[in-house]
Design a protein that fits this description.
Shape: elongated
Strand order of the largest sheet: 2-3-1-4-5-9-8
Largest sheet: 7 strands, mixed
Structural class: alpha/beta
Number of helices: 28
CATH superfamily of the largest domain: Thiamin diphosphate (ThDP)-binding fold, Pyr/PP domains
Helix content: 25-40%
CATH topology of the largest domain: Rossmann fold
């Protein structure tokens, strides 16, 4: 049986903040105030904007009901004034982020209702060429996405840009009260407060999380949640329009002048279902609020606004008919991706790595110099992460000295992997090269939503108009005794992320040589740095062994016996590549097999050219990696080679399919060993015989 809002909260205490239990009173008492706001000539533009939003939303809702729109739709009928009043306070460099119920905010911020109609009808004149449809909109000062709260840290990153580069620029973010169940909200509020960001978060409280009454989904008082972080809280509602107008202005002025965040709880009510056929609310309750709706009040009480509403209806109907016949976006426009393209050429042009710059320094020191050079040459670059401030300099000391040299652009952060990656994404969309350090690679999983639903999707989702040059650095790998949650190798989970480049560093050559172009890509990069390699100096090949590098944009390394013809191709990357290179002679002596070791730096996308060249010559392949072999980089290499009809035999060597234990003897047993590699080489030889 459906439970109405009023029934659900009838026994809730007044400590609920008055936002839910007095909803009827707020709407009833707001009637006179709304009337005063509507009749004042100075507010005519805002009232007309609200009516425009209402007419457009009604038209879209009708189209959706008739099967003319694809996917889903979330209209803001009843909530129009939040977007309409917002528009009057925006300046050129302000920015707005929104959620799945974004149409009203978009029209209020941009005025581009025609582009919105085109977008939902799926034609190429839409604001994102029809790609994103209802939930995924972009303009020069606006961005929306469909995941709950996912854009909040991105907005905080944009707010950091506005604070440091744009005088008086502010960011306004809209969320619903259902989003308060997401931890990213609190990570962002914490950083907003710590960094004094000009960020206004408007929580539109319409009492229902889809179909669940707020009494069953949100505990405690909403406004006090922000107060716990020292963020100023404010409350308003969309019935008392003058008070809402003043409250929003105060919050934006505070962000603009004092560079301080505000959390504004806006009590409102949506009159339409969450989407279309998913409304379980008591109809009497909906009708009660509909009768006290401010937009209806404007139309019923003033001839001018009634006429305007009819005018808008005719205009929107005419445009819908026109937009329905506009051309659709060509698939060839949408599907080419942004990732670096490797020419499928063979043979590769190899050059011996004769000089080893920085080889007297440990790998971590070389990385420190590499990132310092980036920060020195690019005054817009940021470097952020947990515990990276001096004198500590990060868990592995990659950031040692950087916060002293660049105090405004090297920022230590709370333990908030999702939020700091989101902030890096926000900075990146504003043109900053942002480096975000994940202390241990295992914890990159906290940031998967930000990487997958924001960083990797923005470029295509927003019709190739948003670059996201973020570099997410993560210390990966075992052999340090850190145990199950600090030792994993998660490459197999990363290489499948679309439009995201996954690079794996090693200590066989300098970082400068390996990353000469990899960190200048216009899209997101996940950069894996191996913990064992940090302490190593650059590899020095023994007599009779040569290290080569090819000429690709992101190079591949090759370690080979100088005067012998290989019969097997070995492929390894990251710390495993150095592990093998240090034991090259031991492996040869134990297996009596001559091999080339091919070391890709880019794991996704893969440059197959040097691998094809080697495997075509040897006809035998062994892939070795720390992570389990199932669904791995090695599995992808074997599959791609197989599709090219190269005659070869293969073996895959990987770690055990279990968390990596801490005791040395168990950790050693969990990871690939020299014996495992030799066994694979010998097995290939027996198959050949």
């Amino acid at each position: 049986m459906a439970v109405s809002l009023i029934e659900a909260i009838s026994d809730r205490p007044a400590t609920d903040g008055g936002l839910i239990s007095t909803a009827r009173i707020a709407a009833q008492h707001g009637f006179d105030a709304a009337l005063r706001f509507i009749e004042e000539p100075k507010n005519r533009a805002e009232v007309e904007c609200a009516l425009r939003i209402r007419v457009v939303e009604n038209a879209l809702y009708d189209l959706f009901g008739r099967g003319k729109l694809h996917g889903t739709i979330h209209t803001c009928i009843g909530q129009e004034f939040s977007g309409a009043i917002l528009g009057k306070y925006l300046r050129q460099h302000d920015y707005v982020t929104s959620n799945h119920r974004c149409h009203g905010h978009f029209i209020g911020a941009t005025g581009n209702w025609r582009g919105l109609v085109d977008e939902l009808l799926g034609n190429q004149h839409g604001v994102c060429a029809g790609i994103g449809s209802s939930q995924h909109l972009w303009a020069d000062n606006f961005m929306s996405n469909g995941q709950q709260g996912g854009l909040l840290p991105v907005a905080a990153g944009i707010a950091l840009d506005r604070k440091t580069r744009v005088e008086g620029g502010v960011v306004i973010s809209f969320i619903g009260e259902g989003t308060l169940g997401e931890g990213i909200v609190y990570e962002t509020l914490n950083l907003d407060a710590l960094w004094d960001l000009p960020h206004v978060i408007v929580c539109e409280n319409n009492f229902y999380s889809q179909s669940t009454a707020q009494a069953f989904s949100v505990a405690g008082t909403i406004a006090e949640r922000a107060a716990g972080f020292g963020v100023a809280s404010a409350s308003a509602n969309t019935w008392d329009l003058p008070a809402f107008d003043r409250t929003l202005k105060t919050a934006i002025d505070r962000a603009r002048s004092d560079r301080q965040p505000t959390f504004l709880v806006l009590t409102t009510y949506r009159l339409n279902p969450h989407s279309k056929g998913d409304d379980q609310r008591d109809r009497k309750e909906v009708e009660w609020f509909a009768a006290r709706d401010p937009a209806k009040l404007a139309i019923d009480s003033f001839a001018h606004f009634a006429a305007k509403s009819r005018e808008f209806e005719e205009e929107v109907a005419d445009y819908v008919a026109l937009a329905a016949d506009k051309p659709l976006l060509s698939p060839t426009h949408y599907f080419p991706d942004q990732r670096p393209r490797f020419e499928a050429r063979a043979p590769s042009v190899w050059t011996a790595v004769d000089s080893l710059p920085g080889s007297d320094l440990r790998h971590v020191q070389q990385l420190n110099i590499h990132y310092r050079d980036h920060l020195e040459t690019d005054p817009n670059a940021y470097f952020i992460g947990e515990d990276i401030a001096d004198p500590y300099g990060g868990a592995f000391k990659v950031a040692k000295g950087l916060s002293t040299a660049f105090p405004t652009r090297v920022r230590t952060t709370p333990i908030s992997e999702a939020a700091i990656v989101g902030i890096g994404i926000g900075l990146a969309t504003c043109g900053h090269r942002s480096f975000v350090e994940i202390m241990f690679g295992d914890f990159i999983t906290y940031a998967f939503d930000q990487i997958i639903n924001n960083a990797s999707k923005f470029f295509h989702m927003y019709n190739r108009r948003v670059d996201c040059p973020i570099v997410i650095r993560a210390a990966m790998g075992g052999r340090r005794g850190y145990g199950p949650t600090h030792s994993q190798s998660l490459e197999r989970f990363l290489i499948g992320i679309d439009n995201c480049c996954t690079l794996s560093l090693n200590s066989l050559a300098s970082p400068d040589l390996q990353l000469k172009r990899g960190l200048a890509l216009p899209g997101p990069v996940v950069l894996l740095e191996n913990k064992i390699d940090y302490a190593a100096k650059t590899y020095v090949a023994p007599c009779g062994v040569t290290v080569d590098v090819d000429d690709a944009a992101i190079p591949t390394l090759r370690v080979r016996f100088s005067n012998a013809t290989p019969t097997v191709t070995l492929i390894a990357y990251g710390g495993m590549a150095r592990f093998i290179a240090d034991r090259l002679i031991d492996i040869f002596e134990a297996s009596d097999v001559v091999f080339d070791l091919i070391v890709p730096i880019s794991l996704s996308p893969l440059n197959l050219a040097p691998i094809i060249e080697s495997v075509s010559a040897t006809g035998q392949l062994v892939t070795i990696e720390e992570g389990p072999a199932f669904g791995s980089v090695g599995a992808e290499i074997v599959a791609q080679l197989q599709e090219r009809d190269i005659g070869f035999r293969a073996r895959r060597v990987g770690g055990k399919e279990a968390p990596i234990p801490s005791p040395p003897h168990l950790e050693t047993a969990a990871l690939p060993s020299i014996q495992d590699i030799c066994d694979a080489l010998i097995a290939l030889g027996k198959a050949d015989a």
